[in-house]
Amino acid sequence: MSKAGGNLNLTPSHPCPYSYVDRYETITQGIFTTVPMVSEENLIERVRKKFPVSGRQLRVGIGDDAAVLRPQRGEWVITTDAFLEGIHFLRTAQPPGSIGYKGLARATSDLAAMGATPRYFLMSLALPSNCAGKWLDDFLNGMAGAARRFGLVLAGGDTTKNSSILVNLTVLGQCGPGRAILRSGAWPGDAICVSGKLGESELGLRLIQKRLAGKKQWKHLLQKQFYPEPRLELGQWLAKGRRATAMIDTSDGLSTDLGHLCKSSDVGAEIWADRIPLVGMPPELRRLGLDPLEMALHGGEDYELLFTVSQKSGDRLPRRIKGVPIHIIGRITRKKSVLLIPERGTARRLTPGGWDPFRMASAGRR
Ligand SMILES: [Mg+2]
Q: I want to staple 166 with a disulfide (CB 3.0 to 4.6 A). Which of 26, 117, 121, 126 is the partner?
């Protein structure tokens, strides 16, 4: 954590980006805006109020130069995640509460994918001044709700001003010694499993793009796009019993994330198209020409868990674990390609077609 730019662990630093720049803009433009003057101190206080500080291992939280954690048994699992306006979300298309919630859910899903239990998080936040009022309160309320839900305590962070919204979240979790499930442990013959349904978040995104998101009848279809649910309990269950050989969360899409898992494990895979749990498509939306299989293969942001278990464990695997449906969708192969086996017809190579920020067609796709 840098000391510059308003660390949440700090008493306010210099320069104070909100009060200084807002005043400067007001003077140079010669107008008095209706945007409230926000000082960094005020902003930090508002953040602090939304996130109660607690936790046995957190000796010093918000209010000093840095947080102090008291290590206990087990291992720390640490991940960081950038959530940027125009790249990962559109301010105009998404409620601020959901941006706060989803930012933390995305980062926490990486802990679920390791089988870890969430403990603490750090937030770096850069905002335009016109977002420092109600928008920020709603954003923080959404994030505080996610923190309570996932068991996370805010341990510190950093705030500054920027022309667009930048959120960076570092999340710390714990797991038993040697229990974290890595991407690299899959073996030929292992069963490939996935939780929940795939393509649901992509359907929500398509509705937003087609300007159908405002329709009340489709509101429920936006749930996974706006409020995804990291599969924490499932991940922990798999890790505690050493039940999974490898695991990843489906943040970028099945085709891409399975590719990551296979590459790390130095194996290939075959996926049975008719076994993939597909997003349900209301008949009224069929006219949009959306293909549920394509959305399940390449649509990202479902934050489901994609994991492998030994063939023997696969035969005994419950259909639901911790309330989440589990499907076996294929198996790991020695041959290093990833194949999609259709119900009829010939197998085809499944190339990664999911989310990749460096390949994206336009800003705000996700
Ligand atoms: Mg991940």
A: 126
